[in-house]
Amino acid sequence: MSADISSKLNRLLSSQPLGVVLCSSWLVENGYSLDLQQRYKKSQRFESIGAGALIRYGDHVDYLGGVNAMQTQLGLSLHPGGKTALGLQGKAHYLELAPKHVQLFGAHGEHVPLWFKKQDWSVNVKYMLSNFLPAEIGLTEIPHKQFTVKVSEPARAIMECLYLAPKSQSLLEAYELMEGLNNLRPASVQKLLEACNSIKVKRLFLYLAEKANHDWMQYLDLSSVNLGSGKRAIVASGVYIPKYQITVPKELESME
After folding, report:
1. Which of 72, 73, 169, 190 has a CA positioned 20 to 30 A from the CA of residue 113?
2. DSSP character at residue 219
């Protein structure tokens, strides 16, 4: 390997942390041609984990290393959300030491790379692509290994849970999650409620927060939040909540 190629390799190794995927297209954009990438693979400096993706040879990369690459190199809004984001921030009502299921949320129309979809991350990854919330708000960065990953803040994460309810997310569990969110920032909640375009999510969020008797509720200005009109039957048969015009499971309404 020539001195110039070796120097470029050293710059790459020093600029990118261990544990992340390197996207081939991003490498090309930064001066590492496909031919050069092949040389690095032949010299066992890098190895392929699918078409268009490399990792350092022998490196252990988990799904968050893939998410980091999609966020920082490909510019995707895909991020851990819902229960996954709450768990990563210690906000789940029970914490799995080794989660088996992961929820990734992103903007409608985004394409998840095949290398990420086909890779065995040792977890079952579920994708939800939607525009019910703007892609750029309600996110925070958390440290992982030697890098950071954008995930949903708790307020956005519980809204993502409610977006999946009741088909893919139990409302009873959503309430248990909401009970633990007693220190949400009112300004962040306000911004999310105003930007959210799902009437169901907003009504359920306010109902559960009120039921949990959270103090931060008193600082919200609901006059600027569009809660729509008309009734919403969240479940086929249940208890009607006049204030929010929603029908919720009887078991949920009876929970203390």
Report:
1. 169
2. G
